[in-house]
Amino acid sequence: MNKQAKAGGEQAQVEKLLSQKNLAPRWYERFPRALPIGIFALTMAVTGLSVFAIENAETQRETAQLAQTAQSVASGIERRSNANAAYLRSGAALFATQQMVGGELFRAFIQQLHLDGNFVGSEGIGWAMRVERQDIPMVQDVMRRAGNASFSVHPLPGLDTPFAVPIMYLEPRNERNDRVIGFDMYSERTRRTAMQRAAAEGRPVASGRVVLMQERNGGDPGFLIYMPVYSVSDGGQSRTLRGFVYSPFDGQRFLQSAVNADRFEGVGIRLYDGAPVAANLLAETPQAAPSGRVVRREIDMAGRRWTLEVEAPSSAMLSMMSVMTLLFGLLVATLLLVLARLLTQQAVEDRIALAWFEQQSSIRNSLTRELNHRVKNTLANVLSIIALTRRRATDLESFADNLEGRIRALSATHDLLTQSEWGTTPVKLVIQAELAPYAQDAERHVEIEGPDVELAPNDALSLGLAIHELATNAAKYGALSIQAGKVRVWWEMAGEDRARIRWEESNGPRLNPEARRKRGFGTDLIEKIVAHELRNPVDLRFDESGVSCTLVIPVRRRGSFAIREGRPG
C-alpha cells in the first residue's frame, strides 16, 4: 500500500508539472524552415566574406606582381636606350677629333664596338653630315667617286633652308639600310625637332613617333636617337655642328629586345610616345585575353618621355583557393542546414509528443472520474433493482430470475455503449437490443420505427432498463404472451432537446380492473428509477386494450455528457 501510494503521489506530481509547463511552441517550432535557412544563409555569408577576402588578397598580390613586372620592363627599356646612347656618345667623341668622317673611319668605329651584328634593338648606327645647300653637288660628287654611285641628297632643301643633313653611312650594310642613304632627315619635322634639341643640349635625344625610311609603303612606327658631333676651334671657344651620329629603331623590334617574352608570357606590354592613346602607340606585345588591370610607368628615354603600359593577363573569375573555400563552405552550410532541420523537426515532434502525453494524462484523469461516476450510477441502479426485486419476490428462485433479467438488460445496453466508446447511442439500437429475443419469434409481432436520434450514455441505460421491464411484462402478461398480440414502439422529436418514445400493446389479453390497480416491480422501476434518471415523468397506463407507456428523454449535446474534465458528474 505504501509503495502504491508513493507511486501515485509521484505520478500526480509529474502530472502537475506537465500541467504547469508552458507548452506554447517557440518561434523556431512555429517556423521550422526559418532556423535551417537562417543558418545556411549565415554560413554562406561567412563563406562569401572569406572568398571576398581571398580574392581581394589575390588582387593585391597580382597588382603588386604587375607593378613589379612593369618596373622590370621599364628598366629593360631604359638599359637598351642607355646602351645605345653610350655607343652614340663614343662615336661623337671620336668623330669630333677627325677632320673628315669617311667610310673607312666609320666602319672601323663600328668594328671597334664589337657588336657582332647585335645593335640592341636598333636598325644600326649611322652618320648624317651637315651639308650647306650650296655644297650639296660637291658632296654628292665625292660620295659617288668614293664608291656609292647612286648617292644623291633627297629631298633637296628649299630656299628657306640653309643646309641639309643627309644620311652618309648606316651600318650594318643591307638592303633595308641602303634605301635611306642620302635621305635629308632635316627635311622631316619630327626628325628635325629632335636634331635641333640634341644640337642645343649637346646630348643624345630621341625623336617622336615616326615611320622609318627603311619601311616601304609605310609600316610599323619607330623612332631615332641623335647625338650631335661638333668641331671645336679657337681653343674651344667656338664649335660648329658637323653632323649627327644616330640610331634608327623599329618600335616592335626594340620592345622585343628589351622584354623577355618567355618571362612575361600572357602579359600585355604597350609603349607609347607620350600619352597612352592609340595614336601614340609605338609598339606592343600580343595579348590574347586582356583583363583591364593596367599599370603605367613613365620612362625617360634619351631625353624624351615615354609611357609604358603593362596589362595583366585575363584570369579565372575565382582563384583555386576561392573555389575550394566556396565548395567547402557550401558543404558545411548544407550539412548545418540538414542538421538544423533535423533538430527543429525533432523539437516539433517532441513538443507534439509532450502535448499528446499531457492530453492523454488529462483524458486518463477524466476517464477515471467518468468511470467512477458511471460505476456509482450503475451500482445505484443495481442496488435499487435489488431492493425492489427483494421486496416483490415471493421466493429465492423468482428473486434470482427477475434480478438476472434486469442485470442482463443493463449488460446489453452497456455492450452498446462500449461499442460506441461511451459516446452517443442511437435509440433504435437500444430498443432492438432489448426486444431482440421477442422480435426473432415469427409468431410475435414487434414493430419499431422512428427517426435517427442519438442518446447520452446514462439516458441510453435508463431507456434500455425501461424497455426491458415493458418487454418482460408484455411477455408474461401482455401482448407478447399470445400469438395475436402486437407491440409497436415508435418515437419522434418533441423539441430541439427532447425525444418522445411511446410503447403500445394491442391484441393482447384484456386486463381486469384489479390487475390494473395492482402495482408491480416493473411499474415502480419505470416510474421511479427511470423517471428519476431521465429527469422527466413517465406516463405508464394499463388500459383494457393493453399497456401504453410514454417516455420523454433528453437529447443532449455531446459536450454536456462527454469527458467531464473535472466537472462533477
Automatic annotation (TrEMBL):
Give the principal location in a single coarse category. Answer: membrane
Name of the protein described by the UniProt record: histidine kinase
Per the UniProt entry, the Enzyme Commission number(s) are: 2.7.13.3
What are the residue boundaries of the CHASE domain, all occurrences included? Answer: 97-274
The species is: Novosphingobium cyanobacteriorum
**Keyword check for Transcription regulation:** no
> Record's superkingdom?
Bacteria
Q: Does the keyword Phosphoprotein apply?
A: yes
